[in-house]
Write a structure and sequence with these properties.
CATH topology of the largest domain: D-Maltodextrin-Binding Protein, domain 2
Number of domains: 2
Strand content: 25-35%
Largest sheet: 7 strands, mixed
Order of helices and strands: HHEEEEHEHEHEEEHEHEHEHH
Subcellular location: Cell envelope
Protein name: L-cystine-binding protein TcyA
Main location: other
CATH superfamily of the largest domain: Periplasmic binding protein-like II
Radius of gyration: 22 Å
GO molecular function, one term: ligand-gated monoatomic ion channel activity
CATH class of the largest domain: Alpha Beta
Pfam family, one: SBP_bac_3
Structural class: alpha/beta
């Protein structure tokens, strides 16, 4: 009797383990399969980070470089796009909790993010710059940030650069707030994306701030971010590579920047 009971117990455990193993293997593509079935992909973005993701002043519609790229990818995947707007420092929490399927917000590629998330192939490249008040001549390189007040989004690549330079970090929601604090004299500088800063200056003609230094060694590539093993990365990578090959990514780049920023 004991032998029969042991045999039955072993058999049950084998079935359970097989089922679990099968579930683990198939779960990798569950997110993408669910998205394809529902026909909609949910995208997390700021909506306040011009020219990548922002609202048009005339139509109030969400637009920008990242918005155009992710819409084109979704179009090629035959998916509708639903955008969920949130502050940068809440972006990955929203991804983790499945509030959205992908982050489209100039996510810089770094080792920490690669460990935690699936990142697509890069779709843009840029450099970091230091922005100060126009009359501030004391900051000319990253080493000059040590001990000074620098406004940054805490979880951004640029915040990491400022922190590593020894800056006194003042937490903000994004670039716009950083520049406001600089002009008010409440902070001394901010480190941010060169393309975003140049676009801001072009659009506003703001002569109260300036690019004090360009950190050429801090070239960064941006990607879309997904939860690990969601199956979405492979689909996005395929379309992004095709967009680069057929010139679509270049066309979107030139629309927003006058040059190809995907290289």
């Amino acid at each position: 009797m004991k032998k029969i009971a042991a045999f039955l117990l072993t058999s049950i455990l084998a079935v359970v383990l097989t089922a679990c193993g099968g579930s683990g293997n198939s779960s990798k593509d569950n997110d993408m399969k669910k998205i394809e079935k529902e026909g909609t992909i949910t995208v997390g973005t700021e909506g306040t980070y011009r020219p990548f993701t922002f609202h048009d002043s005339k139509t109030n519609k969400l637009t920008g470089f990242d918005i155009d790229v992710v819409k084109e990818v979704a179009k090629r995947l035959d998916l509708k796009v639903k955008f969920e707007e949130t502050q940068w420092d809440s972006m990955f929490a929203g991804l983790n909790s499945s509030r959205f399927d992908v982050v489209a917000n100039q996510v810089g590629i770094n080792k920490d993010r690669e460990k935690k998330y699936d990142l697509s192939v890069p779709y843009s490249k840029s450099t970091a710059v230091i922005v100060t008040a126009k009359d501030n001549d004391s900051i000319k390189s990253a080493k000059d940030l040590k001990g000074v007040k620098v406004a940054q989004s805490l979880t951004s690549n640029y915040g990491k650069i400022a922190k590593e330079a020894g800056a006194d970090i003042q937490s903000v929601d994004g670039l716009s707030q950083s520049l406001t604090l600089i002009k008010q004299g409440r902070t001394d500088a901010t480190v941010n994306d060169k393309l975003a800063v140049l676009d801001y200056m072009k659009q506003t003609n703001d002569d109260k701030v300036k690019i004090a230094a360009e950190l050429n060694k801090e070239t960064s590539s941006s990607a879309f971010a997904f939860r690990k093993n969601s199956g979405i990365k492979a689909a996005f990578d395929k379309e992004l590579k095709a967009m680069k090959k057929d010139g679509t990514l270049k066309q979107i780049s030139e629309k927003w920047f006058g040059q190809d920023v995907s290289e």
